[in-house]
Design goal:
The chain is of the alpha+beta class. The chain is built from eight helices and 21 strands. The chain is 23% helix and 26% strand.
Length: 421
């Protein structure tokens, strides 16, 4: 075939084609939560008090972990709930060398009514399936992962989450665990679930952000893998994040390209409320998902859905708590740091906040961009005694009501606890 006749195929097209194939492929043995076996820890640890400094270290886990092995030849093996401990990995394992690793971040909550809940676990399960196939790891039925998460939480959180109005951090993950060193699609993988004690990270005083410069690198790029929750999105950002904290900032506000397109705040989605320069209408704005730069965050999606239902001009849910708030347009579109600076200088910027599982809904108090310091309004008091913008404060309250069972809502999934039998 003459060179001119060779069809042009982009790497993005090849990746999408391969992902579709893997998502639709039926393996020899599917992931099956009903096959879960239990081996309980005979030397359980003591749950530290809520004010114990060990919780700040983010390395204290519950008594158990859940693991499942997959091989190319045999498919998924039976899941095992077993004592927490090291994974068996050879030094040549693909995950160590080629970032073949995906994960989820979620929480289990102990409600004010004493019940244990998960928040929209089906969304985390679906996203982890997509993230897994993005890095050539196996697909699985998301509903089976969801059932495994529920089974794990039912055992360990009965003991490790005893106090109302508290949470514990859950980390489902999948890694390429086979011993083959070659640059190739992995032939073996291990899926696991652990729970870690985390401190609250939503700052009552507001986050201080340092806007990235081009010499800091790029967090994600169009049609890359910024939309998936894979380890390769996080490691390269840690140097800049560490330097920002040395300078007194909490996170990086990641900008893209010479135009300074606003993308994410650290590893969280970023929102602003402003008056549109051209229409004068009040808008809740966040970056779009279409170019695959932004993570489709579970908290982000929930913020948008609640805002459309309760804050939009065509809101479908009556909410007497927000009569003091002006209705807003809900907008998913690109904007730049220059747009943000201009809005702040012209008095059109109402507030800004970041959201994600770890930071929850965290108001932004200050953004440093080159030599310009932007003070962000925080005019509302929050229930924890802090300050936030009025829209962030309302949305945060609504989410907490669901997570901690103050209101009954389909997003708050109650887990029947079993504990250690």
């Amino acid at each position: 075939m003459a060179p001119a006749a060779v069809p042009v195929v982009t790497t993005s097209e090849l990746t999408i084609s391969a992902m579709k194939h893997d998502l639709n492929k039926t393996t020899k043995s599917q992931l099956d939560a009903s096959k879960l076996t239990y081996t309980f820890n005979k030397s359980p640890n003591t749950v530290p008090a809520l004010n114990d400094p060990i919780r700040l270290e983010q390395n204290s886990t519950t008594d158990h972990m859940l693991t499942v092995k997959w091989t190319e030849k045999g498919g998924w093996e039976a899941p095992q709930l077993r004592p927490y401990g090291p994974l068996n990995l050879m030094p040549t394992a693909s995950c160590i060398h080629y970032a073949t690793q995906a994960f989820e971040g979620m929480k289990a909550y102990r409600g004010v009514d004493g019940k244990l809940r998960l928040f929209r676990p089906e969304l985390n399960s679906r996203r982890m399936n997509l993230s897994s196939t993005r890095i050539a790891l196996p697909s699985f039925p998301p509903e089976e992962l969801e059932e495994l998460i529920k089974a794990f939480v039912a055992v360990d959180c009965a003991k490790w989450l005893p106090d109302p109005n508290t949470f514990i951090y859950l980390r489902p993950a999948i890694i390429a665990s086979g011993a083959a060193l070659g640059v190739q699609k992995p032939r073996e993988a291990t899926l696991f679930i652990i729970a870690v004690l985390f401190p609250p990270m939503d700052s009552p005083t507001g986050l201080r952000l340092l806007a990235s410069k081009e010499d800091m690198g790029t967090r994600a790029w169009p049609n890359g893998h910024g939309w998936s929750k894979v380890g390769a999105n996080y490691g390269p950002t840690l140097q800049a994040q560490g330097e920002a904290r040395e300078r007194g900032f909490d996170q990086i506000l990641w900008l893209l390209g010479s135009e300074g397109r606003v993308t994410e705040a650290g590893a969280s989605n970023f929102f602003i409320v402003w008056k549109n320069k051209h229409s004068g209408r009040l808008q809740l704005v966040t970056a779009p998902l279409g170019d695959k730069i932004i993570l489709d965050g579970v908290t982000r999606r929930s913020v948008l859905e609640l805002a459309r239902a309760r804050l939009a001009h065509n809101a479908t849910e009556a909410c007497t708590e927000i009569q003091h708030l002006e209705r807003v347009e809900i907008v998913e579109e690109n904007f730049t740091i220059h747009d943000l600076v201009e809005a702040q200088q012209e008095g059109r910027l109402v507030e800004a906040f970041a959201c994600g599982t770890a930071f929850f809904v965290a108001p932004i108090a200050f953004i440093q961009y080159v030599d310009q310091g932007l003070e962000i309004p925080m005019t509302a008091k929050t229930e924890d005694g802090g300050k936030a913008g009025p829209y962030a404060a309302a949305i945060k309250t609504w989410l907490k009501e669901i997570m901690y069972g103050r209101v009954q809502h389909p997003w708050g999934v109650v887990i029947k606890e079993t504990g250690v039998n």
